[in-house]
Queue: 2 jobs
Job 1
Amino acid sequence: MASTMTVSLEVNGQTHSLDIEPQETLLHVLRERLGLTGTKANCEEGECGACTVLLNNRPVNSCLLLAARAQGFRIQTIEGLTSAGRHTALQAAFAQEGAIQCGYCTPGFLLAAAALLDVHPTPTEDEIVFALSGNICRCTGYQKILKAVTNTAIGVVPG
Amino acid sequence: MKPFEYHEPASIEAASEILARYGRDAAALAGGTALLVDIRHGELQPHHVVSLWKIPGLDGFRANGSFQIGALLTVNELGDALEHPSLEGLREAARRLGSWQIQNMATVGGNICKASPGADLVPPLLCLDAQLALQSATGRRDAPLDGFLTGPDQTALMPGELLVSIHVPLPPPRTGTAFMKIMRRQALDCSIVSVCARVTLDNDGVTCREARIGLAAVAPNPFRAKSAEAVLTGSRIDDRTIREAAHMARGEARPITDVRASAEYRRLLIAELVERAIRLAANRARKGTGG
């Protein structure tokens, strides 16, 4: 019988002390213990990117990360993305380009794209394609997502 | 996921003791990108997961004549750290592994010790004559990567032994490496075939002094196609030699038919990719750059 453990997680700038079981993934803790359901559960084997969150500004699959391992990192979820100006522009560009349909993959795409624009404010198309290659969308066909990220990078203001 | 106990030892000795005590009931946690999937699918059911992340000194990359890669260096960090032009093949393998998310989590040591038939980093590391530093509570030893993998999901690690770091000797002058792989899509898939070639040229710039050909996803483990290497060594790198080497590499592979491709298609790909990889590696060796 596995014992519970206490972990301290910094999520979107807030520190949470939580009693969890060791096998709980960060995805599980975010959704079930913190109620942050913007992070989506889907394939749960690191192939679809719906569960993408940022650890110290780098995208990871939260389904493959034990919550215990996420201690000491700055964790950012889609709920924490909305306040910063650049990311609001990114979200607006997704809406403007129709880079969203059912929306299930969108939080993951937005976080991966935001992480890319943090490192490469003016990425090449290849860099965008690589940055988004860990995220699967079954609705849009990707071109609109690519356009939304490009527009954000070159400063096209949706309107 | 099935419950397990989580251990965070702060030293190699402590980790080694836990792993030795519980044997097959324990699993070492590096990046977790393979382990958590195996646990979730029930392929592994360890009651003890031993995180290696509290152990100091297992990460990092040092370039000091040769190259020292910490077992817990992430694949993304590896890609960022590799600047030496002769290591271009390893950099290419790192950049094409999984996805950005996976590269930020998966580790070099994990990619080796998972011993997957398609492990992307293994062909280039084989081509670079990588040596492994292995340590347990009772001692430390070095072992060549070549021979370390003993079957799918099997390594020559002794009970309680851990991979600590990977040592890559400085390649000789006029060395080029190139990595190529074919997948069903351009990310997040296991390779159908992957190939790394290393060519070290003589002073004359046309004769091959030393060659390595590493293949993955076409045998129980990635391996060196040594008969292909023998064809290249001491020969002029021309079309006939390259084709002959590719033919030998194809003959050494033992591909299977699976969900990704047929064995016959894999054989066709091996011949083609080995040819291309040798050409690119030789071009890079001639230029003395990674480009």
Note: Chain B touches chain A through 30 residues (CB under 8 Å).
Job 2
Amino acid sequence: MSYCKSVALRGLYAIILVIVPGVSFAAEELSSGDTAWMLTSTVLVLLMTIPGLALFYGGMVRSKNVLSVLMQCFAITGLISLLWAVYGYSLAFSSGGSFIGGLDKLFLAGVTVDSLQGTIPETVFVAFQMTFAIITPALIVGAFAERMKFSAMLVFMALWLTLVYLPVCYWVWGGGWLGGYGILDFAGGTVVHINAGMAGLAACLVLGPRRGYPQIHMPPNNLGYTVIGASLLWVGWFGFNAGSEVAADGVAGMAMLVTQLATAAAAISWMCMEWLNHGKPSVLGIASGAVAGLVAITPASGSVGPMGAIAIGLASGVICFYTSTRVKRALGYDDSLDVFGIHAIGGIVGALLTGVFSAVSLGGSGLGDGNASIGGQLAAQAIGVGATVIYSFIISFVVLKVLDAVLGLRVADDEEEQGLDLSLHDERGYIL
Amino acid sequence: MKLITAIIKPFKLDEVRDALSELGVQGLTVAEVKGFGRQKGHTELYRGAEYVVDFLPKVKLEIAVSSDSQAAVVEAICNAAQTGKIGDGKIFVSDLQQVVRIRTGETDEQAL
């Protein structure tokens, strides 16, 4: 076309873009609405770790170990951020084979101010996914709380990110082999929760129980912190789930709504289970129930409807109540802060029920690609769950065993007795 | 001189203190302690882990008095601290060998 015409058309285009924000004529233009939301989501998910998870866990350990938990969460945040930038993002999200991504984006090569990932800047996507890579290993802290060496923990986290998180993330979200089954895992039921939960189980088995467990009383030192932490998790999770749409649209809106409903249902159902079983409801119970609901709705948040979310929440609250209390005590392992009982089990419950409640007939927005029936979808979900359970547990277990032989994982008996705050950090959490 | 040690229920402290003031007792020391006698503890529950807590919070008072005041002080504490329920506490009276006021150096009866 003539020069004048093309200028006029570009002018018209510019005017329309100014008047009607978000309208895009070409493939993948930057959407300021999507970008604004994703910038916010990233911040919300970071808040979930620092200080959400840090306080949630910190309040549950004994007072002599409160700082050690905060330190672990903070250190993981710093460490994983750096590793993510250097190689994590590349291996998780750049094109590769079926097992792991490539090295095209090593050191974030090619990620510039203007690079786009869909309708948002790639930098924002890198940061958003970074916060997921941070919170997943941080969740595992709960399984080995009060007895792991800080140095060994740092090494473990670096190895775990590299050998477990990055592959599973790539399999589900980066273009790896789990992508072809039409598995529905919107915000990371497998990648984050089952993954961390199984690693947590491996950790508490390899490290062994805390000295004196279960005879010695080890009550939470500050349930106020725990409730503050759980509240920050609840609020921050809207960034986790609704942000996983990577857009500010209807799906994100529904994700927010179903997240709220599942969490509320699980909090109330755990509270009721406790009331029935022990005669009184507790604040630790209702906070734990809320987290169980948040975990379970994570994979489902992009495809279930409000009533399905309530069902998922009720199921998770009841089931996780049992796995974190009766089952744990019966089997005897010291999963100090119920990483397996809530994150693995809640993740499995949620991932499987996603296959059910995503069906349009049950209020969802539709099953995954290639799955025509709930049965078919359940099978796909089971594949995702099974792959994560097996891979995460085995590799985590092996890494821990090797590290135990090379570095030693546990602190000495007298250090554990004195408390990690003083013995590992020369600090006291409370100077009252 | 006598040293009167009383273990009482914490919420009774203000009442006991007022009763002692009325008698003219001008000073006492208070500590937060834990203990048990015949009063049973309570249970606490954290994620399915039930703990029986035997030790109950109590308040310990120590009052140095002249031998003449002993009976009145003991009676005043008993009346003020009593609820009639198990766990009201106990009073121990022991002989006090010497008392010194640090600021002035006064001793014994002058220091009370």
Note: The first helix of chain A runs from residue 3 to 19.
